[in-house]
Amino acid sequence: MPARFLEPAGVLLLMIIKLLLLPLNLVQLLLTWVWMTFGVLTATAIMLLTRRPGPALWFAHRPWSPVAMAILLGRVQVDCETEIDWSRTHIFVSNHQSMADIPAMLYSLRTPVRFIAKRELFKLPVVGWYLRSTGMIAVDRAGGRAATQGLIREAARDFSGSSIIAFPEGTRSRNGTVARFKKGVFLLALQSGLPLVPVALEGTRHLASRSGLTSRPARVRVRIGTPIETAGLGSEDLGQLVARTQGEVVRMHRLVGGEEPAVSEQTVAGETGA
Description:
- The protein is globular.
- 46% of the residues lie in helices and 14% in strands.
- It contains eight helices and seven strands; from the N terminus they run ααββαβαβαβαβαβα.
- Strands 1-7-6-2-5-3-4 form a seven-stranded mixed β-sheet, sandwiched between helices.
- The chain has one domain (3-271): 3-Layer(aba) Sandwich (Glycerol-3-phosphate (1)-acyltransferase).
- By secondary structure, the protein is α/β, with parallel strands linked by helices.
- The protein starts with a helix and ends in a 19-residue tail after the last helix.
């Protein structure tokens, strides 16, 4: 068959598959919102009863995240490149593909975690209550240096008992590749002395598209790298720390099946945004 006929046929087949999956996607979307609302309300109630974020964070870790991944039809495979001391507080730094990254990370990490999230989410009803009550960390993505300093002050209130997850790209990837990292969370790591742990995710973009209506079952691969110690480092080490961490995420992303163009590796201190 001539090559010019293959592309239209492929597009038509893709449209047919999407139409066939649409009823499933609508059911998944409804169940996801129901389960998320139930989870937020339950975790908030736990927080109000116990006056401590720990039990609410545990609820998000287990059982909320496994059920969320089951609703999305995601099969999670987790690999660690080295032994992680889960009793320590870490800052986990991951690429960002979709909203499914959140339950995937909660499912994969063996410790209670807090997220660094954009400030707009804290203004939402129900979701905002949960974020505030469990000590999640708000960041103003358009606030520049002042927002970065605010992030550091807010996160520095209490590091005990729960690690932190950050997506330093600042937004979800449109094509699955790893964008250049912003430096806010790395300043936090330098000031706190907490170790950074690079994490690579692949497959979550198939579980939850931006529209929420074009998802499909997929295997999610999570690879957890070797912790990068920051104790003893100073602000002069910032550029190298950002580049090293992003290099590790890009390397591991390839190992879990991601495709990375050469430009993704060209992150240097002067090119890394705030």
